[in-house]
Amino acid sequence: MGPPHAVAKFLVPDVIFGVGVLAEVGQAARRQGAVHVLVVSDREVGEAGWTSEVLRHLAEAGVSAQLWDGLTPNPKDHEVAAGCAAYTESGCDVLVAVGGGSCIDAAKAIAVLATQPGNGAARGAAARTPAGIAGYAGVGKVPGPLPPTVMVPTTGGSGSDVSQFCVVTDTTRRLKVTIGARALVPDISVTDPRTLTTVPHDITAYTAIDVLSHAIESYLSLAATFLTDAHALAAVRGACEHLLPALDHPGDLQPREGLARASLQAGLAFSNALLGATHAISHQLGGLTDLPHGLLNAILLPHVMEFNASVAAGRLADVAAAMGLRTGLMTQHEAADAAIQTVRAFAGKAGLPATLREIGIGCSHLDRAAHGALSDAYIVTNPRPVGEADARAICQAAW
Ligand SMILES: [Fe+2]
Hints:
Layout: E1 14-17, H1 25-31, E2 36-40, H2 43-48, H3 50-60, E3 64-68, H4 77-89, E4 94-99, H5 101-114, H6 121-127, E5 138-139, E6 149-153, E7 165-170, E8 175-180, E9 188-191, H7 201-220, H8 226-248, H9 253-273, H10 277-289, H11 293-322, H12 332-349, H13 363-373, H14 388-398
Parallel strand pairs: 1-9, 2-3, 2-4, 4-6, 5-8, 6-9
Antiparallel strand pairs: 7-8
Helix pairs in contact: 1-3, 4-5, 7-8, 7-9, 7-11, 8-9, 10-11, 10-13, 11-12, 11-14, 13-14
Bound molecules: fe (ii) ion.
């Protein structure tokens, strides 16, 4: 429990959650005043049929829409610039994202660029920061208001549909930048667990471990509050309960709904408590290699938990209890270790590799990742202070 007079703030969009609620997207967009919507999606989600279903619901609500799906996983700065051009040139007034964290983050980044004079280029020159979207990296550098956004997450992982953050790859410097601002909290989040039933096995594993990493990092965060703790522990419980059933029975709606709930609650937690060293380091490795975010987190998370255990054993023991482990007869440190081993076991059962080396990360990447992690927005809330040597040691242990 935090100090008695600690201040708690909690930002949250309108949340619509449930089987079949995709049909409410049209009215949600109308409530935001939509006349002509830019739908941000990607080809995989389109092939699964969810994008066309959203377009149909928008048309039924009398909202015209234009599809833009020119992005790849880990959205890039130049893709965001192209999406912004599509938004402004078509006279769009609302953004609707349909997809995983990449689509949602791209929609947020388009919203940022669309409202900035010169679409960020002038600011970049004036402030000696990177031109375009990367110039807004950090916390509190995006003045609102932004165009209204309706987010439809389809992977049950990123939590970006409720968060005040987006992550974009700066292709010039080859790193991921985190942009955080109150204005980035979406207006409406619409989660229909049916959409998760078409997520492939590997993406299900990556995104579920990402949910677990959001839940654990936000629970251990220095900015955690009683409002974020409840959601974080519920998300730990949900991710652990539903991850393996979702992998074993991909078409079964119940575990998919459980993962979608866990994703939502982990998003509510980390949007308000922020994250820690796992994400700070994985953003660097993701920018260097374009490897899947959840895969990098799955490998890094247990090592960061071990690093944090010396200052956060009690919180990690709470995590172990939320995982359903019998911690009653354990010391705090034993329970913390059990939580760490459980994360490793989940990743192993999901078929994920255990080392950075196995996924093609070179030794030469580790120094750059360790150095860059210290500039990431999420490093400051890691419960144990992280210096460059610490970050390097975590990378080396994970390699
Ligand atoms: Fe994440």
